[in-house]
Amino acid sequence: MLAIYTRLSREDEDSNSIENQTREGKNFASSNGYTDFEIYNEGEGISGAAEIYLRPQFERMINDMKSGKIKVIYARKQERLERNTRTWGEFLSIVFEKDIKVYYSGNLQDLNTAEGIMLANIVSSFNTYTIDKQSYLTKKSLLDNIKEGKSHGILAYGYTKDEKGLMIIEEEEANTIKSMYELHSDGVGSKRIAEKLNHDKIKTRYAKLSGIRTYKNKHNDIIIKNKSEIKWTDKQVQDILKNPLYKGIRIWKGENYKAPRIVSDDLWDASMSAFISNKNNRGKKVFHKYLLKNLITCGVCGRNIYGRSRKDKSDHFYMCSSKRFKLSDRDCDTKTSRSANIDGLDNFVIGIMRREQGGMNTLENYFKSRDIKSDIDIIKNDIEKNYEKLSKEKKRLNIATNARLDEEFSKEEFSDIKKRLDNKIQEIQEDIKIKSKNLIEQEKTNQVYTNSKNLNWSYSDLETLDFNTQRKLIHQSIERIYMYFDFENKKYRIGFKWHAIPEIQYFVASVKKSGHLSFEGSAGSIKSTNKLEEIKENLKSNKNFEVLYKTSFAIFTPDPVMYDTF
């Protein structure tokens, strides 16, 4: 098979365009009788000096070379393939091992003689030299710009540039910077400052940009977000508070340079003193293990419920986080939310776990009402058919693109065809995404049920297990707990969303003088949904929830949390 490799760096001229490289590669294939070829298009903006793992199409081509799939390679020039002697060395070793022919603009590269190999190595070294020289000149230019007070790259929050490229203060953002330093100097922590900025709808620098941002979270999951959705975090606030740029010192390669000042020395010093004061005032942290940490949601405002405990247990309760720092009018206060004794709620949850066998009773009924395995097979079949459709549409798009390159279509005709095919591809991909998510949920349900059949212990033994095992089993069984205190009837309404079960199961508990909770009975189940109208209908039609409806009980559902009071 013939491999046609194309790449365009930022420094390349228009004549080196991907379209031109692709057309030349196809002409080479046609002229030399290669009907079996594949295009490895690296796209624009990727440097030939980058390591192989940072060049996905080149890496794919290397793997296809190793597998023996590729017998001939075409590129416009050697510099399209590499500008890195390490990359060249690895590429060349595979070429020798697999006896692959390499062509540049139709000319076969001589790799069979000592002179030919020497010349290729000289070209590779020159390519590397060119990149190194560009890098040196770029760094020198950046340093010159820094000395002159010019901007480069993405400017720090609070700054912009004038028509000459000089870094100047952006007044609106600068006022936000000053307020951050003032709040911090008054003892407000970075986390609360971030919450206040988000509540006041002050946009981050990212939120003012268009496009998407891709990153990995702490669980190594790939997260894709619209830049407009990026909000303030305590880390962002801390970075700003500790950045000497805002007191007029711009640091570059360990050297200090002058910059427009936003905060005074007094305000900077006061903020730095607050860091030291906060650190000194922390004292030795009293560590308490919370059985239900990150598991409880407030049934009034939808915020997280967290544990708070002192060594002498003068404070020992789960409380709504909004009572510490209010973000909106619907957040909790002492009239709408009541904290729960930690030991009392922990024991209540353990009791419900025993009573409901970790949700297995509900799961058993759920399985009896439907054929999960059949549902899984149907979804898999639908996904497989969608992938076949997707492959066909992509081939159609590829054919249309090739036809456009051969000028069989006008630019306007191709634009209409491409738009139609892109929409179809996007529609199929979205359907695959939805069905794949549904498949994961169904398989998860099936796995939970299967695992429950193979347990070598009983939920009745839960109280005798050590803390870590208890916590692990509770979090494996329960996806979310929703807690609300009914002030009129002086009872807690506590909802359990078991893993793999599409319902929220509610229980009623009264409070003993000791603070412990006494189980009073089940209040029924409501289908978990993020559609508010469905929740209302469920409430109205379910007799078990009549009392909740009359007392304006707020129903919450997970992912995303939707709420209303009735």
TrEMBL record:
Domain Recombinase as annotated: residue spans: 156-283
Name one matching Pfam family.
Recombinase
Q: Which PROSITE patterns match?
A: RECOMBINASE_DNA_BIND, RECOMBINASES_3
Keyword annotations for this protein? Coiled coil
Q: Which residues form a coiled coil?
A: 380-445
Q: Does the keyword Endoplasmic reticulum feature in the UniProt annotation?
A: no
Report the GO molecular function annotations.
Answer: DNA binding; DNA strand exchange activity
The protein depicted here goes by the name Site-specific DNA recombinase
